[in-house]
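Morning!

This is the sequence you dropped in the shared folder:
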Amino acid sequence: MNILVLAAEIPATSSMPGSPRLFNLCRLLAKNHRLSLITGCQLKERQQWFSDDSRTAEVFQSVTILPDSPNPSWWNKQRHRLHLAPHFQTQYLKPDYHQKVLDIIDGRLVGPPSVDLIYVDGLGMTQYAETNPTVPVVVDLHDSLTLLYSRLVKRETRLLKKFLLHLEKRSIAKREQSLPKFCRLMITNSEIDEQVIKSLAPSSKTLTITNGVDMDYFASPTERRESNRLIFTGVMDYGPNEDAVLYFGKEIFPKVRKNFPAVEFWIVGSGPSSDIRSLVSQPGVYVTGRVDDIRPYLESAGIFVCPLRYGAGMKNKVLAAMAMRTPVVATPMSLDGIEVTPGKNVLVADGAEAFAKQIGSLLTDRPLARYLGEEGYKLVAEKYSWTARGRVLESILMHIAAEFDHARLVVPPLAAQALSAK
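The structure's back. Tokens below.
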């Protein structure tokens, strides 16, 4: 099967900043199918990282980088506002660019080899797939942006900002509601997100394929050294991550350090803001920026902290920490979609005082920390490998292509079972 993949940004491999979901799913699909990628690229350095990864050539038969998106004119900004379009939609904001992207995709669809299915990564790229009725379209939304913005609205206290976020949430909800008109299937990475999509579009076909972890890449040492290092990882210019880091650095870490003066807080990931960098003025706080390999930092840490207060979807960072046998302390929201057992494979806390107390319990009780790390590793090894998710996705895509093309009569049983459950 020939699959055309549309992505807003170059997929992150396991060694790159960002979610490795798309790359790992495509890596498994590429074993039996031919994949072509059309993608945006906001950071040229990211394109180099992608090209340097030896696995990239094994996944995509061809890679087309979309042209840079231009700055919108004043008039087009007003058209965009009048249409109450979501922030990512380019039809009114950048009409020439919008048409150029459509032309690139259309050129790929009419040229050999033929495309059997379009696989869209993220809500933003769906706008370029709705005008091709001759090819079935599947979108992996990852998270429901309606859910994310609903949580943002609840957290915002400034009235004007709250109102603007509410308008954006409405426009995004309208977009997610429209997807069944041209998408055969909407995929999310947690059942919470799937429920939101289903509530917006009850007749839609939806499916949850949870995130996984590359167990080969995040190979864990069986023996871990004791460490007073706390670590948080992620792309730091992403709003929920920045909020979590600032919340931890200002409200939780001082409480921990008061009782454990030798403890350190390491903030590891690309794009830290000036507010995040300013945390280094506190004793024991370190900000690395982007690192070439995150594994040594996870391996040297005593505890992975995930104090997210808003967001959506399953958190890859938590799965990666568990795969490295790093004990995890997290807020309930950080664990959406992960079948954890509090006290067995993770410690859960809501509120600064409770979070600091849970960290203190692990710094004091090293056997408990080792137990949590080992049980966390067992959980992800059993339930969250990418291999199992790739098999389900492949079966689903083959089923959809077969439905679309009546000449294909074989419906993979795994796909039929997964969809009938919906």
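Headline: Residues 2-212+386-420 form a domain with the Rossmann fold fold (CATH 3.40.50.2000).

More detail when I'm at my desk.
O.
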